[in-house]
Each structure stands twice: as C-alpha cells, then as structure tokens.
Amino acid sequence: MKEDLGLYGNERNWLNSYFNIGYLIGTVPTQMVQLKYVRPSIWIPLCEVLWSVLVMAMASAKNVETLYALRFFVGLLEACAFPGYAALLGGWYGPRELTKRMAIFEQTSGIASMFSGYLQAALYKGLGGRHGLAGWQWLFIFDGIISIPIAIWGFFAIPDLPHTTRAFYWTKDDREYGIQRAESNGRVAPQPLTLQAIKGVFSNWRLWVFILPYLMVAQAGSGTGYFNLYLKAEGYSVVQTNVLPTAGNAISVVVAFLAGGIVDATQARLTTSVIIQLAVAVSNILLAVWYIPNGARLFAYFLSHGVII
C-alpha cells in the first residue's frame, strides 16, 4: 500500500490518527444513542455494516487523502462497538464473572489480528495482482465480506440488556432470572437521559481518577502498532512482516485469558494489573533505548503485547 499510494513520512501514522480522532468524537454520542434511544441489537450491527462498507471502499482509494476520510468515518462508526459490548457484558455479569468474559471479548481483537496477518500473507501470495488489485486491496475487500454477515447476525444475536432484552433464544424465565441477577449486582433498567444524569457522570470523581492510569496503560502498548514497520525496515519479507506480529497477538490472548481467570478467582485486580504493567514497562524501556541487539528488540515488541487494555 505504501508503494502503490506513494505514502511517505508520517502518513501511515496519520491513518491511525484519523481513525482515533473519529473514535474519540464518536464514543460518547454513540453510547448515549445505544443505551438510551436505540437498542444495541440494532445500533451496533447497523454501525458495523456501515463501517464494513467503508473498509471495502478503502480498496478503491487512489490517494492518502481518501484513506484519511475513510479512516475517520470508520473510527466514528466503530466507536460504538467496544464500549457498547462492554456495557452489555457489565449488564449481565457480576464482579466475579465479568473480568474473564471481558478478557475473552477484548482478545477477540487479538485473535482477529492474528487471522488478519495470515489472511494478508495468503492474499498477497494468492491474489496479489489478480484482476488488477494488489494484496492490500484484497484484504480490505475480504474484511468486508467477512464482517458484513457477522453484523447481520448481530441484529438477531445481541441480547440487549436484561431489562430490555427481546432475544429469541431467551424464555420468559430466562429474562426474569437475568433481571434478578442484574438487580442483585446493582444494575437497574436504562433511565431517560437528562441533563442531571449527564452532570452526574462528569462530576463523578471516579471518571477523572480513571483517565490518567488508563492513558498510561493505553500508551504502554502503543509500540505494538509499529512492529510491522520495524520488520519491514529490517528487510523482512512481506509474508514475514504480516505473520511474525501474530505471535505477539497470541501472547496477548494467553495473558488476557490467564489474567482474567486469576482476577475473577482472587479479585486481585490491582496486583494483577501492576505485575502486567511492570512487564510492559521493561518492554518500553528496551524500545526507548533502541540501540540493543535485534533479538532484544524483538523480545521487547513481543513483551509489549502483554498489556491488557
């Protein structure tokens, strides 16, 4: 893609930045919509269908400006997904059940990244140049082909919250039991959105105390996004550049599953988080020093995948 579109300098970084800008702008409004006005079982799949179409449209981009615009709107639409699913899981599960389920959900992105690496390598070798399309263009097309049917299934499969569910697979007794469990965990039915409710959210000290450590955690694992650029600069092949990072995704998946199970069993959230972040700190120090043997840099990149966000 870099060669076909003539990308240079920080333009690839800006592709991530435009996605993040859209994501930041969309996060709060999309949550207000899906938790107050439109059922998550309608809103999330609808957004996914739309962003999947935009991802497929990226295959036709002729310049980086088009990619910037598409990435922004993909981020804007995708902003509903992670916090929306997290809210749904939080509505159904209690404190001793939630962490490992959040770990499983969060690491679907790691599994998807692994699959994407193998898919990109296969498309580059098998379809690169077919019908006048490069391997990266085929990847965008196949991403849409895969995700659109899943999004359509979401219209039927997403259960909404216990108090509002209309899922076809729940019986009346299931719904009543879900409501009882939710209420026993302090969950209540969605309330109308008011200025007082908005003020209550932004005046809650927990929100502001949470922001700084979360930013630190998010930043700690940001180096993983540049792993493939490092591999390419070191002269690794296209296939290796796509496949090697999948080992880091595998590490992330394993650590998430183990940590999620440990936290739910022991409720030692702080201790577990500190241990994981100490490991990631070692990774960041090595990458900051940089002038170390190649094997040590690879170790640092793989270790940085141990962060759980």
Automatic annotation (TrEMBL):
GO terms for molecular function: transmembrane transporter activity. Keywords: Glycoprotein, Membrane, Transmembrane, Transmembrane helix, Transport. PROSITE patterns: MFS. This is Major facilitator superfamily (MFS) profile domain-containing protein. It is found in: Membrane. It is a multi-pass membrane protein. InterPro entries: MFS, MFS_dom, MFS_trans_sf. It comes from Fusarium falciforme. Gene3D superfamilies: MFS general substrate transporter like domains (1.20.1250.20). It holds the Pfam family MFS_1. Residues 1-309 form the Major facilitator superfamily (MFS) profile domain. SUPFAM superfamilies: MFS general substrate transporter. Its main location: membrane. It comes from the Eukaryota. GO terms for cellular component: membrane. The lineage of its organism: Eukaryota, Fungi, Dikarya, Ascomycota, Pezizomycotina. Belongs to the major facilitator superfamily. Allantoate permease family. The chain crosses the membrane at residues 67-92, 104-124, 136-158, 207-231, 243-263, 270-292.
